[in-house]
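Most newcomers find our protein records easier to grasp once they have seen one. A learned vocabulary of local backbone shapes supplies the integers on the structure line. Here is such a record, shown just as it appears in the course material:
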Amino acid sequence: MLSLRLSVPGELTDDVVALLSTADYVTGLTVLRGASLIPPGDVVSADVAREGANPVIDGLRSLGVHRHGTIRV
């Protein structure tokens, strides 16, 4: 199991949550609105099974999370 912690601009949060909540390998999804100071936005955390990590991270990258926020594994 891998832990993800994302800092996400508010305008991307709903898309990120939709992606993570429908992924088969994700559990423990948490959203803290307004909790990220740098970059400003929301903190999203989730646990991802190792076998599902690549598709989940690819999906986050396709949303631009890595360009406008942060992805920590």
Summary: The helical segments are 10-22, 53-62, 65-68.
